[in-house]
Write a structure and sequence with these properties.
Keywords: DNA-binding, Transcription, Transcription regulation. It comes from Actibacterium naphthalenivorans. By secondary structure, the chain is mainly alpha-helical. It is built from twelve helices and no strands.
Length: 200
């Protein structure tokens, strides 16, 4: 019986990522991934039983370090405003990171021919991220006596105000990725607008 390890799983994902980006979802086979790994298809299927599951993992872990930043927001929040600003910055750095942007562009280019990758991408990327943002908002609201942050739509409102169409403009190449300083400035303005609606 083969012992599965996290290091091997990560190696498979990192090997598959450039193959998907270069060849597109339809152009990549599990055999090609196994060949790039220098191993057997049996080993690959032991970690990922299908191409759909492998692609889902590539999407979900496009920027694992940046997604992990979302997990630290609550612990670092001394007050509501600083907590929201930390959350907004972590969110934008994640969704505007190069791996996420590259994967998004690939999905946009292929979803018309391969509709199933849209659902795989959405459930493993945007939906997963939004759930985590909503969880953090709810926790911040409980800690700082702002029940409105538990509203199921608060996460979508918050991310929408922080993003303000920036993600779409970057996807289409109409605007460069902002610096961390520009992101922080953008988020400070967004938090003021958000609280004007949720904590008038």
């Amino acid at each position: 019986m083969r012992v599965r390890t996290e290091a091997k799983r990560r190696s498979i994902i990192e090997t598959a990522r450039p193959l998907f980006l270069e060849g597109g979802y339809a152009g990549v086979t599990m055999a090609a991934v196994a060949s790039a790994l220098g191993g057997s298809k049996g080993t690959l299927y032991g970690y990922f039983p299908s191409k759909e599951e492998l692609f889902g993992a590539v999407v979900a872990e496009a920027s694992p370090g940046l997604f992990a930043l979302l997990e630290t927001v609550e612990a670092e929040a001394d007050d509501l405003v600083s907590g929201l600003e930390a959350l907004g910055c972590a969110y934008l750095r994640l969704v505007l990171s190069q791996p996420v942007i590259e994967t998004s562009r690939m999905v946009v280019a292929e979803v018309g021919r391969q509709p199933e990758i849209g659902e795989i991408f959405f459930s493993n990327g945007p939906a997963r991220t939004l759930r985590r943002v909503q969880e953090i908002l709810s926790d911040l609201g409980k800690r700082h006596d702002l029940v409105a942050l538990s509203d199921p739509e608060a996460g979508a409102h918050f991310t929408g105000i922080c993003d303000g169409g920036l993600y779409s403009r970057i996807i289409w190449g109409a605007e460069p990725v902002p610096t961390d300083q520009e992101i922080a400035q953008r988020v400070r303005r967004a938090v003021r607008r958000f609280l004007a609606g949720y904590a008038p």
